[in-house]
Amino acid sequence: MQPIIECVPNFSEGRNLQTIKTITDAIESVDGIRLLDVDPGKATNRTVVTFVGSPEDVIHAAFRGIAKAAELIDMRNHSGEHPRMGATDVCPLIPISGITMEETAMYAQKLAKRVAEELAIPTYLYEAAQPNIERNNLSVIRAGEYEGFFEKIKLPEWAPDFGKAEMNATAGATVIGARDFLIAYNVNLNTKSTRIANRIAFDVREAGRVKREGNPYSGKIMNNEHGEPIRIPGKLKAVKAIGWYIEEYNMAQISMNLTNYKITPLHIAFEETRKAADDRGVRVTGSELVGLIPLQPLLDAGKFFLQKQGMSVGVSESELVDCAIRSMGLNELGPFDPKKKIIEYLLRDEKQSRLVSMSVRDFVNETASDSAAPGGGSISALTGAMGAALGTMVANLSAIKKGWEDRLEEFSPWAAEGQQLKDKLVALVDEDTRAFDAIMSAFGLPKDTPEQVAERKQAIQDASKYATEVPFRTMQTAFDCLPLLKQMAEHGNPNSLSDVGVGALCIKTAVRGAWLNVLINAQGLSDKSWADNIVAEAKALLAKNHAACDEIILGIEAKLSA
Questions:
Q1: What is the DSSP letter of 234?
Q2: Ramachandran angles phi, psi of 229, nearest 5°
Q3: How many CA atoms lie within 13 A of 480 on its CB side?
């Protein structure tokens, strides 16, 4: 897998759009970089930029962005709501795929060294890139901010990791590191009070608040035997939070960093903040995501809120995302476009899902044209997807059937499983056509020299194996739908029995159709042992599927004929 990392530099300019554009142009000038998001904030006077690429390309682009920011931003004139210490305040690298955190940290160190040496900007390392655990926390490093760093940097314990212990008057200092994915998240309040917002932030953030004598807000700070302040921890692990007032929105917010959303999910951060606000007589009106977010936290949130509503979680991916957006009020301050805010959607190559993006009429017309693809393999996958969809539909209808309210937990998981199987089969519709295209591309390779002939022969064999594996996966995935259909036939909404029967017929057709594609693509393989093995497995699966489908169909016919 090609190594991919994400970079999310935060630049201390959120008002001058031309300056921001010039910085992002510098980043995009590096080939191989994909700019995913630019999120400026007027009140914070800060812009969060997100881009991805190969490690070397990313650190080269980051360097160009940092250099351009140092050229255009004068920190002597900067003010904003967000803590900051430099023109490029912080620049984290995040492993996305094909690379470890340790390797990502090495790239962060390489970038930090170059920034210090070539731009004369003192740089600090944080999180996974910082070997000294006593100074790997961003908020601790940044304490004192730009104004205080002229003296702080001279302290021996705060000498920069790279560069001279001398503050750059215009560009400030920069923190560069490697970390897990961080969700920057703001919760909106129906108050303008920063004091109340901070109290709520202290209630929920992991660090909590210091313990005081008497008055919990103004009393004398209590220390332990080592002279350190005693802290009352907050409710949420792996969460940092402060309260602030945003003039642009005329409201106070809880500004949160979820440093590990697997420990504290997005929806739990929202819910606990809502409860803490309620306890203090304040109402949460919505929330805001700064920058991008992975898909999974929104899917988890959608399921959480559907469960709270007593609804089935076995709905489509788009419905889960929509439920999350509406439940957390993510569109209160502006439109929340999933295609622009969710990383997986931004990275999605539309060409990879060309067929399933068509209308039904266009898909049928494409199939009926004089092109060899889509062919039987894609149609088998689509037929299987429809079988899975019918089983999922019946599970959802059973979950909401009047008088069956106590059976929601019985049917909702089946519906959720059906959605996953349906999505896998939908993906196989286009993958089967890509496998066919791979064979055609291999046959089109040059064959002028002995070396080219050998390369072409190997490419044809590799593509043919791939074209055999794809319909076999269609067989496996379609067969995996049968427990769902069997369960619905025996225990689901009886008014939908015919739908279950049609679903089983779809699965029977999908598996038998994919079997034919396994046979035809395995014919030309020179690796006879591999071909014989996959054909034998497919044949055994075909027999099991045939028997299981017939059992479901005959059972339904008997019930409907009684």
A1: -
A2: -60, 135
A3: 18
C-alpha–C-alpha distance, residues 456 and 527, integer Å:
16
Cα dihedral across residues 14, 18, 21, 23: positive or negative: negative
* Tokens 């004598």, residue located: 213
The three-state (H, E, C) secondary structure of 10-71, written as one string: EECCCCCHHHHHHHHHHHHCCCCCEEEEEEEECCCCEEEEEEEECHHHHHHHHHHHHHHHHH
Tokens of 124: 């600090």
Average pLDDT over residues 505-519: 97
**pLDDT value of residue 349:** 66
Burial 17-28 (b: 16+ CB within 10 A, else e): eebbebbbebbe
Please enumerate in sequence order all residues whose Cβ is within 8 A of that of 475, keeping only pairs 6 or more positions apart, or say none: 510, 511, 514, 515, 518, 538, 541, 542, 545
Residue 221 token pair: 């700070």
Catalytic residues: 82, 432
pLDDT at 1 over 60: no
Can you list the positions of beta strands (E) in 440-528?
none
Q: Which domains does the chain have, with CATH numbers?
A: 4-178 (3.30.990.10), 183-347 (3.30.70.670), 358-561 (1.20.120.680)
118-139 pLDDT per residue, tens: 999 999 999 999 999 889 999 8
Backbone angles phi, psi at 232, to 5 degrees: -100, 110
pLDDT at 441: 93
Residue 319 CB burial class (10 angstroms; 0-12, 13-18, ≥19): middle
- Measured CA to CA, the distance from residue 411 to residue 71 in angstroms comes to 60
Rounded CA-CA distance 289/330 in Å is: 7
Give the percent of the chain with pLDDT over 90.
83
- Residue 244 pLDDT level (bands cut at 50, 70, 90): very high
pLDDT band at 343 (very low <50, low <70, confident <90, very high): confident
Encoded tokens for 5: 């990392």
Omega before 374 cis (within 30°)?
yes
Write the DSSP assignment of 437-476 as a string of letters: HHHHHHHTS--SSHHHHHHHHHHHHHHHHHHHHHHHHHHH
d(CA 257, CA 183): 6
pLDDT on residue 337? 95
Lowest mean pLDDT among 220-224, 264-268, 400-404: 220-224
CB 82 within 8 A of CB 47: no
Distance between CA atoms of residues 400 and 411, nearest Å: 9
User: What's the confidence (pLDDT) of residue 2?
Assistant: 76
Dihedral in degrees, nearest 10, Cα atoms 472, 477, 479, 480? 150
Residue in the block written with tokens 């993906």 = 427
Report pLDDT digits (tens) over 318-335.
Answer: 999 999 999 999 999 999
Q: Which residue has the tokens 């340790």?
A: 102
- The predicted structure's pLDDT at residue 330: 97
DSSP 247: T
